[in-house]
Specification:
Length: 504
Amino acid sequence: MPTLTEKKPQRPATRAHGRPLPELIFGDLWEFDPAPETADPKLKARYDLFIGGKFVAPSGGKYFDAINPANEQKIAEIAQANAADVDAAYAAAKKAFDTTWGKMPGRERAKYIFRIARLLQDRAREFAVAETMDGGKPIKEARDFDVPMAAAHFFYHAGWADKLDYVAPGRNVAPLGVVGQVIPWNFPLLMLAWKLAPALAMGNCIVIKPAETTSITALKLAEIFQDAGLPAGVINIVTGFGDTGAAVMGHPTAAKVAFTGSTEVGKIIMRSLAGTDKKMTMELGGKAANIVFDDAPIDQAVEGVVNGIFFNQGHVCCAGSRLLVHEPIAAMFLAKLKTRIRTLRVGDPLDKNTDIGAINSREQLKRIETLVAAGVKEGAEIFQPSCKLPTKGYYYRPTIFSGVSMSHRIAREEIFGPVLSVLTFRTLDEAVEKANNTAYGLSAGVWTDKGSRILKMSTELKAGVVWANTYNKFDPTSPFGGYKESGFGREGGRQGLLDYCKLV
Ligand code: NAP
Ligand code: MG
């Protein structure tokens, strides 16, 4: 019978070559004093829409609450945009495209984009705290990953703005006009930067909608657009839930729509736009495999697998949510993984020691619980450390399922939480077959000492990104995107710019 939480620390299994691992003592050893980040996130009580360079009240007069998932407290009010507001945003974007941004030489546009990047760097700590409070991610990730990477995307694309002749050598490129963009809640500021920076560099104007649960850093970035003197209407931010996203995607003024979110919603959007001449890019879900061979650097691979699934509570489209481990080392590897996750600290996202913060929303927590219950019901063996969880807020223990088979829901469906499903393989071909046996194809990881095996695997894996002996590494120069139901189009690098221009 699988147990839901660990009762007492168990002795890890023996190593492959027979020697037992030393018994480790858990608990008190890892208690740290609280180390909360105290920088002021400078939140406003109420955030309006950002249209035509100004913050404007929603025409319907409605607002909804922004909740801190770490403690369920309201932290601000966010405007609910209706169809008339989305119209106004598109009208402002069209005017900016026709009168300023679309006509401006790339070297001039670059100055604004560089300015946005620098102003974001200046306010990095403040943005990191706001991101953590609104979304629940650990402050060390918001501070060391989300905010610096977002700034890096603006810097990188600012550098392209005066070199657009090199985007498609031998051809001339021109902006598309006004683009509509919708983004999810897992990397609110970073997804915003991924969407805005290439579109801006190319000379497009934008209407963008952040996710319902994470709108604050987008609206804080609007303050930076004002400080940077960005011409009115170049970027318009409409917040809301329900019909707002569909209104942004379906608007007749949009020459292109770019969506990042679930495959389910991506399909709805594609169906609704079939037959229109809008360009589209879709960055959708994933069910990536981390594949560990018996000659892998084991401790490095354990860290990589842990980082691959527990980073940002597993709220990562390219999360390594499946582990495929070579049979000869499977028991030893699993024992090491369990040892490692007992030391992860789950709790207050604002604490600098926290490894796993809050789940983004009550709905997402329920989805994780449902899929974990399905895994238990289908007969996989569950392991969860017995760490204490805060009593208020949405939290979930890091979870490992072993004895998983390909037919289990936890091996097929995107859980989008800190839950790892472990499967084994005997041969390289079996590893490739299992890794590719999914509707998704966003990313994969390969852990082995053999270069030839890395090359073979990266050719055979149907995934947009294949990391070798590392995981979750990002760079603005490197295009990111999916195969199959993980979507189409690329973000980052020269390829990402191609998705925001027409060839003339
Ligand atoms: P989601 O439910 O698909 O929502 C994404 C965005 O779409 C939100 O802003 C949402 O607004 C909006 N939306 C909902 N219904 C819509 C509709 N009918 N038309 C237009 N827009 C609509 O996804 P999520 O739960 O926020 O994010 C998690 C998903 O994103 C996962 O599947 C993950 O894999 C994927 N993701 C992919 C990538 C990638 O690069 N491939 C990156 C990050 C995340 P509301 O918030 O108001 O519902
Ligand atoms: Mg929130």
